[in-house]
Prior knowledge:
Layout: H1 2-16, E1 21-36, E2 46-58, E3 63-77, E4 80-98, E5 101-123, E6 131-138, E7 145-156, E8 161-170, E9 181-192
Antiparallel strand pairs: 1-2, 1-9, 2-3, 3-4, 4-5, 5-6, 5-7, 7-8, 8-9
Amino acid sequence: MKKLFLVAALAVFGMSQTNAQVKFGVKAGPQITNLVGSDDLDANSKVGFNVGGYANIRFSEQLAFQPELLYSFQGAKTEAKLNLSYIQVPLMLKWYAYDGLNFEFGPQVAFNVAGKQKVKNTITGAGPLDGTTEVSSDIDDLETIDFGLNIGAGYELSNGLNFGIRYTHGLTEVIKDSDLKNSVFALGIGYTF
């Protein structure tokens, strides 16, 4: 994985030495997130979001490199609601197949900045204490770094507005000593300046 990031860094440096066209933009959108793996978590998907910015380095009519910096709110629903927050750095290679239609692929590294679980407790038969309360606590043993692979497609209009869909599959475990990995389907709306 380190070699892949080194190659990407060298590619960016090499492109900066050419006549590459560099544009910057912002993006945001909803996402469906989950934790997948053979550990029997019985997790259901939950809705999250992502927001951030990017640099689009276009070095030919059909090829671009797009590093991004995103905040991503992820997690899953089990008997508890798991809320995970990441700062993500995707390194996307984009191929423009026709006009504004593009396909993308690339690795990402994400840094966990928060992990909470919310559990609902229901108390019955205790008179005035009857009811449901929600207790929030930190998730123990969260990994701080998450590596993943992205694949997606998008369309860019000539006025800078763009739309995309992306799937991210985690390559490393989210919680220590488990095989649970992030799985994210994200929609994005962006604007390139």
